[in-house]
Amino acid sequence: MGSPVPGAEGTPLAAASSTSPGLRPPTRRSTELFMLAFAAVLVTCALILVEANQERELSMQIVWLGLAYLGLLTVVHLAVRKWAPYADPVIMPCVALLNGLGLVMIHRIDLAMADVKYADGSTWSIAAPKQVLWTAIALVLFCTALKVLSDHRTLARYGYTFGLLGLFALVLPGVLPSFIAPEINGAKIWLSFGAFSIQPGEFAKILLMVFFAAFLVSKRDLFTIAGRRVLGLDLPRARDLGPLVAAWAVGVSIMVLQKDLGSSLLFFGIVLVLLYVATERAAWVVLGVVMFCVGAFAAWKLFGHVQIRVQNWLDPFADPYDRGHQILESLFGLGTGGLFGAGLGGGRPDEIPEANTDFITAVIGEELGFVGLSAVLLIYTVFALRGLRSALAVRDTFGKLLGGGLAFAVAFQIFIVVGGVTKLIPMTGITAPFLSYGGSSLLANYILAALLLRISNAARAPKTTPKPRPQQPAIADQFTVMVERPK
Amino acid sequence: MNTPLRRVGLAMMAMFLLLLGNATYVQVIKGDDYRKDPLNDRVILEQYSRERGQIIASDGTPLAAVQKTDDRLEYLRTYSNGPVFAPVTGYFSWIYGAGGMERAEDDLLNGSDDRLFTRRVSDLITGRDPKGGSLQLTIDAKLQQAAFDQLQSQDVTGTVVAIRPQTGEILAMASTPSYDPNVLASHDAEAQEEAWKAFDADPGKPTLNRAVHENYPPGSTFKLVVAAAALAEGKTKDSQVDGRPVITLPGTNTPLPNFNDTNCGNGVTATLEEALAKSCNTAFAVLANELGADKLRDQAAKFGIGEQDLTIPLSVVPSTLGPISDTPSLYQTGIGQKDVRVTPLANAMVAATIANGGVRMQPHLVGKILAPDLQTISETKPDEVDEAMDADQAAVLRDMMIASENNTSGGGKLRNVTIASKTGTAEHGEDVGSTNPHAWYVAFAPAEKPEIAIAVIVENGGQQGLSATGGRVAAPIGRAVIGAYLGGR
Q: Mind spelling out the 3-state secondary structure of chain B?
């Protein structure tokens, strides 16, 4: 924090001094550290509750785990303090709380599944230690990203490279043979290397966002040229529809090749928002929504798995033991949790399928109730709004576009997953950022957080003042010299 | 670019509001429906995931325990010697709920009872106990077995209730035909369903605890109540009462005869003692009329007949004297017919109260409440409910009951023990003449220093049909049970 002027808070003097070039604006890093510590305490309390409710021994080990988490957060804090000192102070505490709560829930689900034996004789594989490892790797990646990327505008230079890479990563699992890209739960989005598997789509999401932001900023003027005017809307020229059609095609292909409805919806939504923000023209949104509806309707007509999802959404009780089972168990869990929940460790996450990935918010809703689920949603809201605020404040258009896109991506992803879990929209398999189990998702989202911090740092950092030129007296102050008229 | 960004922000807020609204709908408005949905097995799993407490007999014999299983329900409820103790333990089914003690003390057994609270640190945080508390009953396992064996060997539908007069502890509560609660606790849904349907369809009603969930006309055993009321009104055992072999109910042509139309005393009057010993109907019908309905009702209430909402902690159906709308009804009430209905437990309490010098104790089944670690949390203290009779009058009535016992036929008399008793042969049904009567026997022993009071009822005359009497059918069972208890030491 900057050095406060005693008794001058809020006075014109203080306001003036904060804008004067000599004084630096407060970094709020200590506030961030305090909030990170608070997040660590909350996470530790959550762990204690889980252990107590699961009748496990309450040992000092929990405190050590909590301190270890606080240690990791301190490292993050130091990295931010060093490499992005003016970054938004609220974003990382949100991430820390979500990530920590995710770890506790994943551990809690491990406990619930420990006794489960599957029909083929296999047992539940413990996920929490792996997720802890992923968290550590993600934090390293986060710090590295902050250090390496000292200015987000650098990314714009590699827009096309990122675009190609992203497209490649996105389509890869869909086209590779199934021994390396197995179909899991009907979706073909993983690359599997023995015990280790990644979801390239999670990274592709960010790579493509960078590409689109860079592309739209450089070609921005093209998209604002009006074409024909229909029903009061200025439609773009047909040839400018390229990017939108491309995004639509990619979205549809994800749906067809990988059967991943959630990702395709998320991807299409993000592109639409980027286009809208870049061009400031609602026509793109209308056009995009129409295209989405056409695509969705066609998909519903053509593909059985889409029809099943819609059917489960409309009436999960139609087939309660098989197809409707997932969403019903989710609803039962949420309903049983009620207003205040069954208590951490008091619910039945073993009843909910895919409890530690797609349905982790249902487990939270069951154990922490509506109150807890709302709290988690509000943390996401704060995260997304702080990201958006950074985008508003940053001065370069690329930063605005990328920051807005990243913030929207998180909010939209949460809308899709929680909306699916609570039967607001059809369920589509997608992870909850920072909460869900999965290394790829965690790594990608920490990179996303690093980018947002970088952008917010640029937004809040004082302008580097140009070197003062040598002082020259004003002309008016110059001596007037009578010059003798040449003869 | 900031204007569209702000609009995107609004869109984000709208999305979160939609999510919150929908979560409110799912969790708060529809929450109860989802929680109670039959397809949602969380509630039942929750019950089974905790180690349910034991039910043990007074000497520590386990009656109900749990066994760890590999299936989803985790713990299997097991009953040792199920049919013998089923009327007391009840059953614990994940499909049909619980019955008996399993139901009455469910909170304690499943660990959610407040009495178990704060015994562990984590209880403070979580508000529940990982294991249920245990129940130590007042039931004497050997006596219960003896009572069940007696009923079973006679192949009758009936019940035996035994009470310790000084404390109200219920020592035995057997009911036949019985059932095995183990099949209802089965984790195999089909086996459970099949058993439940079979029990339900069985005309013998095996799951009915006849001691407390059924009431019967008490017949002549009710004369104890009438005699107690008479003694309270200043009569003695030598007071003269009506001794005619048959009378006509006032205002009707309906005759009310003694058993086999026998004389009582000299055929005109008899002593109260003889009237009770010979169970003269005419004497007590007239006596009831002399006393009046109110005094009769008062005396009955002092014995606990008419008490509503009695729990031991099994709920007990109320016993009643009926409306007693006219004089003929009052006559019939005096001999325990018409609309008089008592549970076997209530009748046993009449005997126990007389045995205890007229002091009625609260009947109860729970001796101690134990923590999951079997430490005693609380012990049931004997609770005096009412003084039904003066001690002197109770002693008089006791002597009259000894005379009654001596006058009662039937087998199994005990040589070394003086029993004070009263039999009853209660008519019931639409057509009294062709419906087999219920056979009653209420008694306590040893008469000079009572240790046990019992009530036995055999429905519909047992194997003896129309010729059944309390003395012939119920008394041998009662005497054998008393003998098993007093000889058992």
A: CHHHHHHHHHHHHHHHHHHHHHHHHHHHHCHHHHHHCCCCCHHHHHHHHCECCCEECCCCCEEEEEEECCCCCCEEEEECCHHHHHHHHCCEECCCEECHHHHHCHHHHHCCCHHHCCCCHHHHHHCCCCECCEEEECCCHHHHHHHHHHHHHCCCCEEEEEECCCCCEEEEEEEECCCCHHHHCCCCHHHHHHHHHHHHHCCCCCCCCHHHHCCECCHHHHHHHHHHHHHHCCCCCCCEEECCCEEECCCCCCEEECHHHCCCCCCCEEEHHHHHHCCCHHHHHHHHHHHCHHHHHHHHHHHCCCCCCCECCCECCCCECCCCCCHHHHHHHHCCCCCCEECHHHHHHHHHHHHCCCEEECCECEEEEECCCCCEEEECCCCEEEECCCHHHHHHHHHHHHHHHHHCCCCCCCCCCCCEEEEEEECCCCCHHHCCCEEEEEEEECCCCCCEEEEEEEHHHHHHHHHCCHHHHHHHHHHHHHHHHHHCC
User: What are the tokens at A2?
Assistant: 């900057």
pLDDT digit string, tens, across residues A26-78: 888 999 999 999 999 999 999 998 888 877 777 888 889 999 999 999 999 99
Q: Which of B2, B8, B50, B120 to mutate to test the interface with A (most CBs of A within 10 A)?
A: B8
Beta bridge partners of B369: B135, B378
List chain A domain ranges: 20-148+303-461, 151-302
Q: How far apart are CA B16 and CA B347, in angstroms?
A: 67
Q: CA-CA distance, B303 to B363, in Å (whole number)?
A: 12
Does the annotation mark B220 as catalytic? yes
Sign of CA dihedral B404, B407, B412, B417: positive
3-state secondary structure at position A344? coil
| Cα-Cα-Cα-Cα dihedral sign, residues B251, B254, B259, B264 | positive
Q: For residues B457 and B470, is the Cβ–Cβ distance under 8 A?
A: no
Q: How far apart are CA B180 and CA B184, in angstroms?
A: 8
Å between B314 CA and nearest CA of chain A: 30
Closest of B307, B315, B313 to residue B353, by C-alpha = B307
End-to-end CA distance of chain A: 69
Whole-Å CA distances, A263 to A216, A267, A272, A295, B239: 22, 6, 14, 14, 99
Q: Give yes or no for a contact between B100 and B86, defined as CB atoms under 8 angstroms apart.
A: yes
User: How crowded is residue B260: how many other Cβ atoms within 10 Å of its Cβ?
Assistant: 6
Q: State the pLDDT at residue A228.
A: 66
Is the peptide bond preceding residue B177 cis, with omega within 30 degrees of 0? yes
A54, closest residue in chain B (CA to CA): B130
The answer to whether the CB atoms of B5 and A384 lie below 8 A apart is no
Q: What is the pLDDT of residue B13?
A: 95
Bridge partner list, B95: none
B35 CB within 8 Å of a chain A CB: yes
* Distance between CA atoms of residues A440 and A452, nearest Å: 18
What's the CA gap between A258 and A181, in Å, rounded? 10
Domains parsed from chain B with CATH numbers:
213-366+381-487 (3.40.710.10)
pLDDT at A470: 64
* 3-class DSSP assignment, residue B5: helix
Closest alpha carbon within chain B to A113: B72
Place of tokens 């004084």: A23
Q: Say how many C-beta atoms besides its own lie within 10 A of residue A165's C-beta.
A: 18
The residue whose two tokens read 């009707």 is B252
Task: Decide if A369 and B1 are in contact by the 8 Å CB cutoff.
Answer: no
Q: For the segment A109-141, what is each residue's pLDDT rounded down to a tens digit?
A: 998 888 777 777 778 888 888 999 999 999 999
Q: Of the ranges A200-209, A325-334, B15-24, which is most confident?
A: B15-24
The span from the CA of A148 to the CA of A156, in Å, is: 15
